[in-house]
Amino acid sequence: KGDLLAYLVSMSLRITEIYRVLKPTGSFYLHCDPTASHYLKLVLDAIFCGQKGEFRNEIIWSYRTGGVSKRWWPKKHDVIFYYTKSNKYLYKPQKERIYYETPFFTTEIDEEGRHYADVYIRDVWDIPAVINVSKERLNYPTQKPEALLERIIEASSNPGDLVLDAYCGCGTTIAVAEKLGRNWIGIDITYQSISVMLQRLIDSFGESITEKIIVDGIPQDLASARALANRKDDYVRKEFEKWAVLTYSNNRAVINEKKGADKGIDGIVYFLT
Known about the structure:
By secondary structure, the protein is α+β, with helices and mostly antiparallel strands. About 30% of the residues lie in helices and about 20% in strands. The chain is built from 7 helices and 11 strands. The strands form 4 sheets. Strands 1-3-2-7 form a 4-stranded mixed β-sheet, sandwiched between helices.
């Protein structure tokens, strides 16, 4: 009973399966906010370290967003746990360039005359979050910045390697993996997420990207659409409605999550006459 314990049971099952399919030289990253990260650390230690895996880092992702409490320190960081399945794993140290107003003996000078030093990145990452005015913003509530996934993917994989995101959301991981020349698999439970992912890939890489994507688990014909509409665990047929609205608006509609005085409108799409 309780949302937290239900969440931990669900995550335990999924992390166990992810560990099973992870290749021996593979790496695993889990992102969480501080409200549950300490519980998940116990789960990860049990699954990975209990089977000859290794805990590598607790990474702090620090960011600045609006809203500051006057009752406690502003909560402006998330936690990323980094594990490997064995001691034989790929890790490529990443560097960042730091600029200095005044020179000292370790700095170099770039083509614009600025003094800089290339520094190895530590386990505290200061990467801006996706805010309202960001060019990346897709109005998806859990969207991560591409710079965050670029750092992870570049450090722990080579071009041509396979990247899996089992909670893909709006598809930041797969978009970055595609840009960096990695193969990828993205999984999510909602058709709204799948729609956002597909449109994001098309906007980023063009319509031709659809020729190399295999989409599994959504209706492909009338029989599978009927099966979704009559699914017993979806009593209000919300997932069918989302799939229908998004499919027949070419993933351009906005799903209406609220019911009431709207007289049963499932989604809204705007178009130019």
